[in-house]
What does this fold into?
Amino acid sequence: MEEHSLATWEKLYELQAHQLAPRPQDDERRNGQIAGEAPRDRYRDLYDFFPIGYLTLGSDGGIDEVNLAGAALLGEERGGLIRRRFAPFVAPEDSESWNRYLSKIRHSSDRQSCELAIRRVDGSSFQAKLDSMRMEAGNDSPIRIVISDITERKSMEKEIQDRRKKMDDLHLLHATSQTVAAIAHELNQPLLAIASYSNAALMLLGSREPNLDKIRKAIDGCERQAHRAGKSIRDLLEFLNTQEFTTETFDLHEEITDVLDAARSEQELAFECVFRKGEEIPVVRANRIHVQKVLLNLLHNGMEAMREGGVPLPVICVTVKRIPDESAVQVTIQDNGPGIREGDVYRLFKPFFTTKAKGIGMGLAVSRSLIETNGGKLWFEPQSGAGAIFHLTLPLAT
It folds into this structure.
């Protein structure tokens, strides 16, 4: 569109230069008038049959001249448009935009552009792009306008937006279904355990000499598994509410520091944490609770892997950096645990998959869905040797 507009203005300047050329004043110039009629006819044809609308507004906003394409766009004979004000052709909903645009043109010597709706004489309307420029110095100078019908382009843009929204809705539905499947799997395990503990307790109570210690352990097991099931349900309900979640602007540095403190207090594993950050930690915009849960889940996964792997000096490295040429920040969490087996890499974010005997409450599938819902990405970086590396991105606050 810009290249087309540039070519348009070049033609119009060429036309303007011809119109402003000195008129013949003597016999010698009159003798050359006949030779100049052909070029003038060519310029007149260029003006009249230019495929894009072209018109000139006087200081009072009236149409001083208009080509055939411009008259066709406005739905009126060219003669019926002369001295007619252009403002009434602007759709009422865009009248304020037109007034601001007109004021901007009159107070600037540069070319100005805008998009608004134009209403034809018959009441129909179309989306137009206006490229305008003041012809001379002074606020009362005539204004030349190139008007293009962009209805088809705007329609295509809207169709693309609608399709993108449908894709986002489908993605959210898919993410939700993955989450439901993952947590349903998590819920099934504690329910089976509760049933087993309860059955054992009933059998012990039915014996001649009930073993109270074993009965107590069975009941304690039921309680633990009930809490585990309750947590899975809370995770599910919380995620299902992410369709209408609120976002806020917050300091990512403070958030990561708080999450690291919380991870240390919740885990018995003593680990060293290395926090690498750029000179300036960007401010992000996302749902703070979602970010907390994902960061905690990734940290817990790393700590559990290092504990189960018997790492003598467990270390977790958190790196934060701004992504060049993108309005986003990247967070990397790396541990020195046993790492992820090559055959498990492509299943990490799938529901039902876990490398732990007791499963996970928040799950990588749910974590990825939460990050993507906030406009970011979450992925695993395969590497040779020990350790696991996870990356996530979050949008910067604008």
Summary: The chain has three domains: 2-149, 158-244, 246-398.
